Amino acid sequence: MPDTSSEPAPVIIGNEPGAFPHGVLAERHPAIIRQVRDAFPYDPERRRALDALLASCADGVIEPLPVDADARDRRRWADWGMDAYAGRSWFDVPWLWAESHFYRRLLDAVGYFGPGVWEGLDPFRPAKLAELDAPETDEELAALDALADLPTDERTRALLHGSLWGNRADLGFRLSDSGPGTGTKDRVPALVTDDSDVLWSLLPPAGTSASGRSASGPSASGPSAAGTSATGPTTLCLVADNAGRELVPDLLLVSHLLGRGRIDRAVLHVKPYPYYVSDATPADVLDALRRLGAAGGAAAVYGDRLWTALTDGRVTVRAHPFSCAPLPYADMPDDLRAEFAAATVTVLKGDLNYRRLVGDRWWSPTTSFADATAYFPGPVAALRTLKSDVITGLTADTEAALVANGEQRWRTSGTHALIQVRR
Ligand SMILES: O=P(O)(O)OC[C@@]1(O)O[C@H](CO)[C@@H](O)[C@@H]1O
């Protein structure tokens, strides 16, 4: 039985040495600064700013935004809690807030917000392109050709799993529920919960009825499209996570769903600016699309379909400022709430989106996913590999088996994944 306790669990703070969140602030962030420092021949001013951020990560406090920051951005950060957290240690504020704000400061340091020659230059772009151009990506895209011989349902499932495990940058088009597995000793399937049947019931193939379609879904007043059902177009909001080898299978999935008539439209939500190293931005969508075209074969067919859908408006790309907010989705603004409310289903990819969806809290693992997401304005699904401590929706048996495995890193190592859906 899921735990339906309505008491919110404690918010995760990064102040416990030895714990995963502390390691991210104390070790990972400095490593990211060093990586960025080497990525471009930044001038002395930029390098000094990066060094100052490095020092601040170790023992500094969160500073207010610079006075020359864009006024709208300053207002946003004020709304997002800047006044409450300025002057406090990175380690003593909610971990989600500290991490998110770190990327804002990193972009300041490299001059991303300009003016100047570094304005708008993604400091993570070299790493993103290297991943996209890696031979593994070629192999994975070539493997798509073999999918053509599979029955449609199996292909649909393979593409869903490709998107899911792509969150581990592991575009394997896995055909079995067991996913990549965690070794023969492991008594728990890699997929710790799998609500994919519920997801497919929300997005049935063209010509069949969606029993669970959102009552608040787009009505006849929305723009018409070929294949639109009596209840309005079936719209998928896909809230993307990483660029490169995660975004590629996300795009393949969207293209496939369009091609099979399971969706009429898709809205792809990406980040307005570089974030969490590899998160996808609009430029990354274009890079991934070009990559599909250049691969030829089946990959190019998927890419062409998406290209056409972008040009005729069936697929749109959104980069909402709240996508980079240091807050849970429970605090989303009204315009975003209305967008998600109008979707047939919103699929959130990845670990960070999961943290923001259920709240970055020390939930008991058996906390009901439906309860934790009850505030979300429409049907919602999470496709996530487990890369941080937050978890909900496990059965008591699965939790016990994971713990009994003796492998304490199941929460953070990306060896397990979940598909959770609340209709
Ligand atoms: O959202 P993603 O790409 O699946 O994962 C991002 C992520 O692993 O990076 C963080 C550490 O910086 C984790 O807390 C976290 O959630």
From TrEMBL:
Pfam families the record matches: ARMT1-like_dom
Cofactor(s) listed: Mn(2+)
Region (Disordered): 209-230
InterPro entries per record: ARMT-1-like_metal-bd_sf, ARMT1, ARMT1-like_metal-bd
Reaction equations catalysed: beta-D-fructose 1-phosphate + H2O = D-fructose + phosphate; beta-D-fructose 6-phosphate = dihydroxyacetone + D-glyceraldehyde 3-phosphate
Family matches, as Gene3D superfamilies: 1.20.930.60, Uncharacterised protein PF01937, DUF89, domain 3 (3.40.50.10880)
Assigned keywords, A-Z: Hydrolase, Manganese, Metal-binding
Residue span, Damage-control phosphatase ARMT1-like metal-binding domain: 25-398
Similarity-based family: Belongs to the damage-control phosphatase family. Sugar phosphate phosphatase III subfamily.
UniProt-recorded name of the protein: Damage-control phosphatase ARMT1 family protein
Taxonomic path: Bacteria, Bacillati, Actinomycetota, Actinomycetes, Kitasatosporales
